[in-house]
Write a structure and sequence with these properties.
By secondary structure, the chain is mainly α. The chain is built from 10 helices and no strands. Helix 2 (29-50) packs parallel to helix 5 (107-137) and helix 5 (107-137) runs antiparallel to helix 10 (231-255).
């Protein structure tokens, strides 16, 4: 057999890994796609129907218009984190992580394959929720390109963070702890259900140190045209966080940290 030589990038291997990740979550779409949509719908029903009738405007918007983008982005980031982290920890627990480490894939190509799966799942969920919000609220995104940019950045940020969690965790209990004590609090305490301007100090200032705040705030600006922080600053913070998180994930994959004997 002749030696098969790859170019600088193993495009076929990267695309195959990405396709595997997409098929993995689509096989159980009731859990991976439908469940987050149901959770987002329940949040809207509880906060708007049960609690929102007597609420006035928030940042000059009806409460449902203010709440919708935050719910969408919160679902996107939780979905992206769950996709990459569950895939990696499942492979480690089942002992088939070798199927990912043995093929001729570099650390960057493995990272790209996992991020592609998280991005595809997040965009699917975001698209469905966005259509639902358009039907419920009655208008589309004010700045669709900015809204799309923050959704993509959110998926890449939390997809990379999910990889870090999957590398660190050695069992599902540790992965659940990271989700319950890190991802969920950061997403809930980042202006999803309220404007951070209503918070007293020092919590208002501390909120601006949370990168997820800028994701939700940027998505709200993209959909509704209002924000708590400058959009340019939000884009810069999110972009730098994406680069930092995924650079660390690349380094850990390259060194085999907690992945190889």
């Amino acid at each position: 057999m002749p030696v098969r030589r790859f170019g600088r990038v193993n495009w076929l291997g990267t695309a195959t890994l990405a396709a595997r990740e997409i098929r993995r979550f689509m096989t159980v779409w009731q859990q991976t796609v439908l469940a987050p949509l149901m959770t987002a719908g329940l949040f809207v029903v509880v906060f708007v129907v049960a609690l929102g009738r007597g609420r006035g405007e928030v940042m000059g918007l009806p409460f449902v218009e203010f709440l919708g983008p935050g719910i969408l982005m919160m679902t996107v980031i939780q979905t992206a984190f769950a996709n990459s982290s569950s895939s990696l920890i499942s492979s480690k627990m089942q002992g088939n992580i070798v199927d990912t480490l043995m093929p001729p894939l570099s650390a960057a190509e493995i990272l790209a394959g996992y991020l592609a799966g998280s991005l595809a799942r997040s965009l699917l969920v975001a698209g469905v929720i966005g259509i639902g919000l358009a039907l419920l609220v009655g208008h589309v995104a004010v700045h669709p390109l900015l809204a799309s940019a923050f959704i993509v950045l959110g998926a890449l940020m939390l997809g990379g963070l999910g990889l870090l969690g999957g590398i660190i965790a050695q069992k599902f209990d540790q992965m659940a702890a990271l989700t319950n004590f890190v991802v969920t609090p950061l997403s809930f305490l980042s202006g999803t259900f309220y404007s951070v301007q209503a918070l007293p100090e020092p919590f208002r200032t501390l909120s601006h140190w949370n990168p997820i705040f800028y994701l939700i705030d940027g998505a709200r600006y993209g959909f509704a045209g209002v924000s708590d922080a400058p959009v340019g600053r939000g884009l810069a913070v999110c972009l730098l966080t994406v680069v930092a998180v995924n650079a660390l994930a690349w380094w850990w994959l390259r060194s085999g940290f907690r992945m190889k004997a």
